[in-house]
Specification:
The chain is α+β, with helices and mostly antiparallel strands. Helix 3 (about 100-115) packs across helix 5 (about 290-295). The protein starts with 15 loop residues before the first strand and ends in a 9-residue tail after the last helix. About 40% of the residues are buried.
């Protein structure tokens, strides 16, 4: 008798029913009294430093940063170090939960002074250092708009540390079926607290053992028009380097751990310390000369030579030898190469770690819930891209196969099938002229040449190649990746800048690699072509349809261009605006008014030096008022990112943002949308809150569900979640943990906070929020998915690549 096998059960996808998300944020409801010890900045030391001839009576911040970081390494239980203390007589310099060893502090300052100024500190300078008991009262206050704040501004730094000290750092994580043990990290400069799981998880992949730790970040945040502050929880991973590490640019972050009798505090195990390494002239050194200072104190050899650490990270990773720091190098984009482990914590671990933490708070303390706002899912696309009436596109090449690939990708992106010999094409009512340009100069200027003024040689070669041609053009340029110029000058900035001065916009594409997968090659060229078209002020088919559907509204992005001398020859700090409407994309520059977007980009390169004199207090309102007055529209929506603009326009700060007063109140047709993303930990992590059909009858957290949409927090604040992370449902199984799928990236969509305090006449916050959300959805030409910022602000951010002074 033949046995008939039963058909295997069909796999069915779980169905989730939810109109809610939970923010992984814990409300802080009680005021606190913090008992501790303060030390003021010694006045005599300030006077000595100001008297140093090479400081010209101006107290420079760099030595003070060095002093602060070194102190934080030695005194790890400090609640905060106030770097501005020399100019704040009534505020402490140091504040600690436990008494500080004054003799050790004086010894450290003397060593710091000798290392930085090459002389012995005069006697009696530190006699006025005293430790004083102090109570700091942290009250939760609210302004007239109902927005919470903390009465002590330093509490944003030390309150997470106070809370962290009360929490059990041994957490049982159900999806991992084990406990994780966490060590607190002492941050030398940033606010908030980090936990790192230790010992690290070890994974064998590709015949090599790799290590990672879960990384939990805590930060106090307030949300406009809400009466409570929140402790935000962000969970990620740190992938540790065990092979030789190379720094790409100028610096890297490392972690130190060690237990020594000279570290104050009551911790049995010293916390990890986050500090910095710098690269100069090809050599590595501890930032702020921390190693030299500790050596000068007589603790030589405690911190190893950093170049030896990067040469062989595994030697200093898990071996905690006597009187030696364990040195941990986390992998990141600042390092050359790739890591065998993927980025990001698993979706389940993120939620379960956060839930185990919130369990330690009072029973009535829970994550806030936001309801989804229903919106139309109808996607309308325009038939044709809206191109300029005439476009000259130059293709600069070294390899003929690359030229052919670039040309075909361009024509394919525009759905132009026929390739012709004269290289003139019609797209709707637009004429496209292609010009093939051979790269005739050697642009790989080696370090030997650089010593002989290689940058000047590179500038001369690029200029010669252009041959005084100033015809406005859009250029695809074959150029190696930055890492391929490791031993020579990277010419990208020079090419972009000089081409822009010749009215040419550039998009770089690296040479073809025979080993590259065809799909990746196609995507790389396609993405570069669409990014070049974006520079022409062209938006996606969906974006153009959206703008035409809302033809009575002009959408404006306000963005502050800011560069320091590491990324530009001169510091830059000035605003630009980008507006998008049914007709075209334009840019407003200081003193210049509105011009087409593709003309504004080269002007950023040509005239950034003329904007150095821009003064925000004197010129900002003139720029805003003048630019908005020139817009003829029934309704204007202004977008600005808080982290970018609030120092320049203080109304965008949480404590100042208002529904009743704003600096642009004369425009009754104006709505304002302020956005915050996860930069500096200012947007919360989140999880779906709902039901899994046929599995659970109760509502619960569903970390493996990925909705998109708009979620309402209060009458003026919304959270916008864009498209599902790429790969979920394909390569990424959201039910798996990081340990189960260690080589896979676990990306997550940011819940972008949108605050809408001001609405144009007859408009409402929810209506404006819907428009802002739609402007993220596939409106930018160069991305298949949603952008982080709404279209006009996204275009303003992208413009920054041209805003620098290269030479």
């Amino acid at each position: 008798m033949t046995k008939i096998k039963d058909d295997p059960p069909k796999k069915t996808k779980a169905k989730y029913t939810s109109d809610y998300i939970k923010l992984l944020a814990i409300p802080i409801e009680e005021s606190q009294v913090i008992k501790g010890y303060r030390i003021n900045f010694p006045q005599k030391l300030k006077n000595i430093i100001e008297e140093e001839n090479h400081f010209k009576n101006k107290f420079r911040i760099f030595p003070l940063k060095s002093l602060s970081e070194t102190i934080q390494i030695l005194f790890t239980d400090l609640l905060f170090v106030n770097s501005n203390a020399p100019s704040q007589q009534n505020e402490p310099w140091l504040f600690s939960q436990h008494p500080i060893d004054i003799d050790l502090l004086k010894h450290m300052i003397e060593s710091w002074y000798y290392v930085h100024f090459k002389k012995i500190l005069p006697p009696n300078v530190l006699d006025d250092i005293k430790i004083v008991e102090e109570e700091r009262i942290v009250k939760i206050i609210t302004n007239e708009q109902g927005t919470a704040d903390l009465s002590d501004s330093f509490a944003y730094q030390y309150l997470p540390k106070i809370i962290s000290a009360t929490l059990n750092k041994k957490l049982f994580i159900p999806c991992l079926q084990k406990h994780l043990y966490f060590i607190e990290v002492s941050n030398s400069s940033s606010q908030g607290v980090n936990w790192i799981s230790w010992p690290p998880e070890n994974i064998t992949t590709r015949k090599q053992t790799e290590y990672f730790s879960y990384n939990v970040k805590f930060k106090i945040q307030t949300i406009p028009f809400d009466s409570l502050p929140y402790l935000y929880i962000h969970v990620g991973v740190l992938r540790w380097m065990t092979n030789k590490a190379f720094i790409r640019n100028e610096g890297a972050t490392v972690y130190l751990q060690g237990t020594y009798p000279w570290i104050s505090g009551k911790n049995e195990l010293a916390p990890m310390i986050k500090t910095s390494v710098k690269k100069r002239n090809g050599h590595l050194f501890w930032e702020h000369k921390t190693n030299d200072i500790i050596n000068e104190m007589g603790y030589g050899g405690v911190i190893p030579e950093i170049e030896k650490v990067f040469e062989n990270p595994s030697q200093y990773f898990l071996e905690n030898k006597e009187n030696k720091f364990t040195v941990l190098i986390p992998y990141g984009s600042h390092l050359w190469g790739t890591h065998n482990l993927g980025a990001g914590a698993g979706f389940k671990e993120r939620v379960e770690i956060s839930k185990e933490i919130v369990k330690q708070f009072p029973p009535d303390c829970s994550f806030p819930i936001c309801r989804k706002i229903k919106s139309s899912s109808r996607i309308v696309k325009h038939k044709n891209l809206k191109l300029p009436s005439s476009m000259i596109i130059e293709i600069w090449y070294s390899d003929l196969k690359w030229l052919e690939k670039a040309k075909n990708s361009l024509l394919k992106s525009l759905n132009i099938e026929a390739n012709n010999e004269v290289n003139v094409y019609k797209y709707g009512e637009s004429t496209i002229i292609l010009k093939e340009k051979a790269i005739s100069e050697q642009l790989d200027v080696g370090w030997i040449e650089r010593k002989k003024d290689g940058e000047a040689l590179l500038i001369d070669r690029i200029t010669k190649m252009l041959n005084s041609d100033v015809t406005p053009s859009f250029c695809l340029f074959e150029l190696k990746d930055k890492e391929d110029f490791y031993h020579s000058v990277d010419p990208k900035d020079f090419i972009r800048h000089i081409f822009a001065k010749h009215n040419k916009l550039t998009q770089f594409i690296r040479p073809m690699d025979p080993k590259e997968e065809l799909e990746k090659l196609e995507h790389r060229f396609e993405h570069a072509v669409t990014d070049l078209l974006r520079q022409a002020g062209i938006v996606s088919l969906r974006g153009q349809a959206f703008l035409e559907r809302h033809s009575n509204t002009t959408f404006v992005g306000l963005y502050n261009i800011q560069r320091n001398k590491k990324t530009s020859k001169e510091k830059l700090n000035y605003p630009i605006m980008v507006k998008a409407d049914a007709n075209e994309i334009k840019m407003a520059l200081p003193y210049r008014g509105w011009i087409p977007y593709h003309e504004g980009l080269p002007m950023l390169a040509k005239e950034s030096s003329n904007f150095i004199s821009f003064n925000y207090e004197r010129d900002m309102m003139k720029f805003l008022h003048g630019s908005l007055h020139q817009i003829n529209a029934e309704h204007i929506i202004l977008f600005a990112k808080a982290q970018n603009i609030r120092k320049q326009v203080k109304w965008f700060q949480n404590r100042n943002i208002s529904t009743t007063e704003n600096p642009l109140s004369m425009f009754n047709n104006l709505s304002i949308v302020r956005l915050r993303d996860e930069e500096e930990g200012e947007a919360p992590e989140w999880t779906v809150f709902g039901k899994i059909e046929n599995e659970l009858s109760e509502i619960t957290e569903i970390p493996q569900s990925f909705p998109t949409g708009l979620f309402k927090f209060n009458e003026h604040v919304f959270f916008s979640i864009g498209s599902k992370p790429q790969g979920v449902g394909q390569k990424i199984d959201p039910n798996k943990t990081k340990i189960e799928k260690p080589t896979i990236n676990f990306p997550r969509s940011t819940a972008v906070e949108m605050t809408i305090p001001v609405c144009g006449e007859g408009k409402f916050p929810e209506e404006i929020a819907q428009l802002a959300y739609q402007l993220r959805k596939e409106t930018s030409l160069q991305y298949d998915k949603d952008t982080l910022m709404p279209l006009p602000l996204h275009l303003a951010v992208k413009a920054k690549e041209y805003a620098k002074i290269v030479f």
